[in-house]
UniProtKB/TrEMBL annotation, chain A:
Biological classification of the source: Bacteria, Bacillati, Bacillota, Bacilli, Bacillales
Keyword Mitochondrion in annotation: no
Pfam families: ABC_tran
Residue ranges constituting the ABC transporter domain according to the UniProt record: 22-255
Keyword set, alphabetical order: ATP-binding, Nucleotide-binding, Transport
Any one Gene Ontology molecular-function term assigned to this protein's record: ATP binding
Protein name, as recorded: ATP-binding cassette domain-containing protein
The keyword ATP-binding belongs to this UniProt entry's keyword annotation: yes
InterPro entries named in the record: AAA+_ATPase, ABC_transporter-like_ATP-bd, ABC_transporter_ATP-binding, P-loop_NTPase
Automatic annotation (TrEMBL), chain B:
Keywords per UniProt: Membrane, Transmembrane, Transmembrane helix
Segments passing through the bilayer: 20-39, 59-75, 119-136, 142-170, 182-200, 237-254
Organismal lineage: Bacteria, Bacillati, Bacillota, Bacilli, Bacillales
Entry protein name: ABC-2 family transporter protein
Pfam family, one: ABC2_membrane_6
Keyword match RNA-binding: no
Superkingdom of the source species: Bacteria
């Protein structure tokens, strides 16, 4: 369905010296630096697969998706989607794909959602009956009924995302690219969106490529993940496997009455690590974060040990984040 | 073809989305036409003709030209430039249609709405209350409509050239201001081109702008008739073909730039 081999994209970035002198110099002479956004990426995705495409911000996810959708021409390498080379046949390719970009609306801002859908039906030349059927199904699964007659600008973020998602699937595309479809949404809406994606995949065998920072999306939808960092593929394979290997690191955050006398309890020594403060965090705050591997300790053990020695005001247990896993893979290798 | 027609319709729906804005447009046109009326009446106070044009012809020219001139300021190029600035053009490129065609058709939707909103009511007001003349002849009326349509197409493609330039300059505000000033003057929507000094008239003849307003309105008033009218329309068509070709060339360059260099 999707064949990618040796895909590379380089950008030329204009370098500027700082200050006014730099700005004036840049008017006459520009220096360029070549940035490799994507380097030698290869993968192949079968029809009906749902693949999570993961990586930190700026890792090259969007660049890859843009090349798959034909709005970027690769510097080198091969792409084929549905038997079409996207950047050579952009309009042809566009008929067979759907896309949601979490940050960007594709519906018409000023007119009711239904009118936008109606226009999309004509743009993608969807037969009337198919359109009706799809719309009925989407309305049911995504609960769009009350939204259809409202202009997009008056919808909340969650309502808008549901409408966007329906728009991406309206012409029953063979491939759908979802770029952070659940960003900034509450749990209930996230759940609706996941259910919908699953349903479409089941019914239409839609191939889905999903980029997200939400582990929940991945766990519920994807069996396979591709992790990319600094433009290179770090991992391509089973989600379960990677979770077993890297996902055991857990973190508990404690908010203490008084941080001054904090020491790791004796029973935990050498089995937990104090997580250094992230950059923006206030040094003075009374929180301490302990990380440990769930192979040798349970969260309950850690909490109990700390509670018995210190007075704790509040605590939270953090789920393993994709970023953490990516970072760890990057540091330790697969 | 059907999809572009639907886009035109959806633009008409968008135009009616903001009711106050819609009627404000009508109001602005009424005020504009009244100003034109009193201005030209005052100018003609002590004379019977200027550049061989009597007051009635001048008023007819001024009102029709003002109505046509309404369309030339917010065109398809403006929309394109906005999409380029906001980055929305990437989404447009994901769609199975030609963006230039889409923008042109949407503009026709805007024109259709404007026809109903300002042009026809204002023409009626002009005919009934301000002594605006009817087209000189029946043939003149038909040629006027055809020539207006060609002129609008031409205006859209000139606007699109500016819009596509935004791929390189990102901000085209300065260019747009310049273009609006040039259009206001050289299309003849302020005063007929025949009132320019000789050298300026010659210059104007070698530019596409007078094909946008001056030619159709002169056909309406009968200043251009018969063979003159037909040859003026031929010139219109030639300019349109040229501008169309320019837009197509720079558009394909722009798309290549976006897809190769990532904007």
């Amino acid at each position: 369905m999707i064949e990618v081999s040796g895909l590379t994209k380089e950008y030329k970035i204009a370098l500027r010296k700082p200050g006014l002198t730099g700005a004036i110099q840049a008017l006459f002479k520009r220096e360029h630096q070549i940035k490799q956004a994507v380097q030698d990426v290869s993968f192949s995705i079968r029809k009906g697969e749902m693949v999570g495409y993961l990586g930190a911000n700026g890792a090259g996810k969007s660049t890859t998706i843009k090349m798959l959708s034909g709005i970027l021409t690769p510097t080198s390498g091969k792409v084929e989607v549905n038997g079409i080379v996207p950047y050579q046949n952009r309009e042809q390719n566009a008929k067979g794909i759907g896309a949601v970009f979490g940050q960007r609306t594709q519906l018409f801002w000023d007119i009711p959602v239904r009118e936008s859908y109606d226009l999309l039906r004509h743009i993608y030349e969807v037969p009337e009956d198919d359109y009706r059927e799809s719309l009925a199904l989407f309305t049911e699964v995504l609960d769009l009924g009350p939204l259809l007659s409202i202009p997009v600008r008056q919808l909340s973020l969650g309502q808008k995302m549901r409408c966007e998602l329906a728009a991406a699937f309206l012409h029953r595309p063979a491939v759908v690219y979802l770029d952070e479809p659940t960003i900034g949404l509450d749990v209930a809406v996230k759940q609706k969106i996941r259910t919908f994606i699953k349903e479409m995949n089941k019914r239409e065998e839609t191939t889905v490529i999903l980029t997200t920072h939400d582990m929940g999306d991945i766990e519920e939808l994807c069996k396979r993940i591709i992790i990319i960092d600094e433009g290179k593929v770090l991992y391509d394979g089973d989600l379960q496997q990677i979770k077993e290997r890297f996902g055991q690191k857990r973190v508990v955050h404690f908010e203490l009455e008084n941080k001054a006398g904090f020491a790791v309890p004796a029973s935990l020594r050498d089995r937990v690590e104090i997580v250094p403060k992230a950059d923006g965090e206030a040094e003075a705050s009374n929180t301490v974060s302990l990380s440990f591997s769930s192979r040798d300790l349970s969260a309950a053990d850690v909490i109990q040990a700390v509670l018995s020695v210190h007075s704790v005001r509040d605590l939270t247990i953090a789920d393993p984040k994709i970023e953490t896993i990516v970072k760890e893979i990057y540091e330790r290798g697969v | 073809m059907r999809k572009y027609y639907e886009m035109m319709k959806s633009q008409m729906k968008i135009e009616t989305a903001y009711v106050a804005w819609f009627w404000a447009g009508t109001f602005a046109t009424v005020v504009k036409i009244l100003i034109l009326y009193y201005f030209w009446t005052a100018v003609y106070e002590n004379r019977s003709s200027i550049a061989e044009m009597p007051l009635e012809t001048m008023l007819t020219y001024a009102v029709i030209a003002a109505l046509l001139g309404n369309f030339h300021f917010a065109g398809p190029g403006n929309q394109l430039a906005e999409q380029i600035q906001s980055g929305g053009v990437a989404v447009e490129l994901l769609r199975p249609y030609d963006l230039i065609n889409r923008l042109v058709w949407q503009s026709w939707g805007g024109f259709g709405m404007s026809l109903v909103r300002d042009m026809l009511p204002m023409l009626a007001v002009g005919w009934i209350f301000l002594g605006i003349q009817f087209p000189a002849t029946g043939t003149g009326a038909v040629l006027f409509i055809l020539s207006t349509l060609i002129g609008l197409f031409l205006a859209m493609y000139i606007d699109l050239i500016l819009g596509v330039l935004a791929f390189w300059t990102v901000n085209i505000f300065g260019l747009r201001t310049l273009k609006n000033a040039i259009l206001l003057f050289f299309t003849g929507s302020m005063v007929p081109v025949t009132m320019f000094p000789g050298w300026l008239q010659t210059l104007s003849q070698y530019m596409p702008f007078q094909s946008i307003v001056y030619v159709p309105v002169s056909i309406y008033t009968g200043t251009l008739a018969g063979l003159d009218a037909l040859s003026a329309m031929l010139v219109q068509i030639l300019w349109l073909a040229l501008m169309w070709a320019v837009v197509r060339v720079i558009w394909s360059l722009a798309v290549r730039k976006v897809t190769v260099f990532g904007g």
